[in-house]
Amino acid sequence: MLAAVAQLQNFYKYSSAYLYKNNPFHMFINTILVNWTELVSQNKKLKIAKYRVNHLKYRLYQMEQIIDQGNPYNVAEGQKLDTLR
């Protein structure tokens, strides 16, 4: 009888310690808060991504213009490839 009570006490101590360390309610609240902040910051991340894509397109356009200027087959714009930009 005493052994069964001691086992129940040990089980209660271990389970309460586990729930204290891994609180499911606290984990649930943390998950909700992290998902909410991610949802709120999506618009800002989208703007940053659009800016990066547009900047890369602009740089590609600049490179194409430099290549066109230095094209020896273009009669009007040959020998300008040495310019630094």
Overview of the structural elements:
Helix content is 76%, strand content 0%. The mean pLDDT is 84. The protein has helices at 2-21, 24-40, 42-69. It is built from three helices and no strands. The protein folds into two domains: 1-40; 44-74.
Task: Summarize the helices and strands and which ones pair or pack.
Layout: H1 2-21, H2 24-40, H3 42-69
Distance between the termini: 88 Å
Element string (H = helix, E = strand): HHH
Largest sheet: none
Proportion of residues in extended strands: under 5%
Mean pLDDT: 84
Which parts are unreliable, with pLDDT below 50 for 5 consecutive residues or more? none
Number of strands: 0
Broad shape: rod-shaped
> How many distinct folded domains?
2
Q: If helices are DSSP runs of H or I spanning 4 or more residues, what is the number of helices?
A: 3
What structural category do the secondary elements indicate? mainly alpha
Radius of gyration: 33 Å
What is the share of helical residues?
over 70%
Concise account of the structure shown:
It contains three helices and no strands. The chain is mainly alpha-helical and 85 residues long.
